[in-house]
Amino acid sequence: MHPVVGELVLHFERFDIAADSGLTLFTYTAEPGTRSAEGLQLLASWAATPATPDASRPAEDRRDA
Fold first, then answer.
1. How far apart are CA 15 and CA 12, in angstroms?
2. What is the pLDDT of residues 20-37, one digit of tens each?
3. DSSP sequence for 29-60
4. Which of 11, 19, 62, 64 is nearest to 36 (CA)?
5. Alpha carbon of 10 to those of 29, 41, 53, 61: distances in Å?
6. Exposure string (b/e) for 55-64, b if CB count within 10 Å is 16 or more?
7. Percent of the chain with pLDDT strictly greater than 70
8. d(Cα 35, Cα 64) in Å, to the nearest integer?
9. pLDDT at 40 over 80
10. 6: helix, strand or coil
11. Are the C-beta atoms of residues 50 and 56 closer than 8 Å to each other?
């Protein structure tokens, strides 16, 4: 249960990385068109949004803004 978007029903796949023993990659997806897919999209949009409008600019460029 996620505190913002509620319950998410997700499917996952596990990929063991052969080049690095003990390293595993997991991918999670939701069925398209479901409430879970909408919730994941909302969470992804938050992660993709900079905390401040200038966060993507190097610090030296922000000083003179």
1. 10
2. 888 999 999 999 999 999
3. E--TTSHHHHHHHHHHHHHHS-SSTTTTS-HH
4. 11
5. 5, 13, 32, 41
6. eeeeeeeeee
7. 77
8. 44
9. yes
10. strand
11. yes
